[in-house]
Structure formats: C-alpha cells, structure tokens
Specification:
rod-shaped; mainly alpha; about 85% helix; 3 helices
C-alpha cells in the first residue's frame, strides 16, 4: 500500500515536471514571437517613414489673407459709397 502511494506520488511529480517543461517551452515560444512582432513593427515603421512623403501644412495663411483682403475691400467699398452717394447709405440704414 505504501509502495503504491509512493509510486503514484512519483507519477504525479513526473507529470508535474512534464507540464512545467511544456509551459516553459510555451513561454519561450511566446517571448520569441513577441520579439519577432516587435522587430516587424519597427521595420514597418521604418519603411513607412522612408516611403511616405512628409505631410504638408494646410495653406491656412493664404485663406486667412484672402479673407482679410475681401473684408478690406468691402470696408473700402462702403467708405467710397458713403463719400460719393451718402443718400444711399441713409436709405440702407433707414435714417
């Protein structure tokens, strides 16, 4: 009886060692896969950096300049109309 229990304990210990060895092998495989993934991602980033053109800033300055010019022209036109035809301004404002 004691011999049988000792044999069962040895078998369980052997199974535990085998399970631990499989888990360690899986862990090593997982670490290797993670390293490969990191290298692949870095390579992809490097390739994208080399192949993609640099982003160009939007021409916000030109839009802003044209808007200011249009407002200036409207103000100038209003001023000229008030000098040349003041009655038109009175008619528009209701005075």
């Amino acid at each position: 009886m004691l011999q049988e229990q000792l044999q069962q304990a040895d078998e369980r210990e052997q199974q535990a060692r085998e399970r631990e060895a499989r888990l360690l092998a899986l862990l090593a495989l997982l670490e290797t896969a993670q390293q490969v993934l990191q290298v692949e991602q870095q390579s992809r980033r490097d390739l994208e950096t080399r192949l993609l053109p640099a982003p160009r800033p939007a021409p916000v300055g030109k839009v802003r300049a044209w808007t200011l010019l249009a407002l200036l022209l409207v103000a100038l036109a209003t001023f000229m109309v008030s000098l040349v035809r003041p009655e038109l301004i009175e008619w528009l404002t209701g005075s």
